[in-house]
Amino acid sequence: MIAAMLSGCRGGEQVEQVLGPEAVVETFCRAVASGDMEQAEELCDTVSMKGYLDAWTETWAELAAKDSSALRIAAGILSESTFTVTDVVKDGDRRIINYTLETGGKTKNRSAVVRKEEGEWRVESMTDAQ
Known about the structure:
Blueprint: E1 5-10, E2 13-18, H1 21-34, H2 37-42, H3 50-66, H4 68-79, E3 82-91, E4 94-103, E5 106-117, E6 120-128
Antiparallel strand pairs: 1-2, 3-4, 4-5, 5-6
């Protein structure tokens, strides 16, 4: 639950707020892009997203083994991507979040399905937008 919350201070006291569906998708994307698979796992349905996470974990491990400086550069570029929500479709306890990622002048249209589980939004799937 720690990764799925925003923390801040108000009047000297710690305030925590559960992330909404769009923020969960953005935070998940940034975690994957930076190689923080632990945080990514906290933000998703690990059963349905296992293949997705495994592929990224393998990619990051290969980059680390080949050239750790390239890994740092890639993580820096990816983590500075512009994330823009283009549409949110409500479907019961699920939301379909359509968004774009822009990195280095290239734009990728993506779609994520999130669902509410025990009061928190979890990423259930990620695909290229149709």
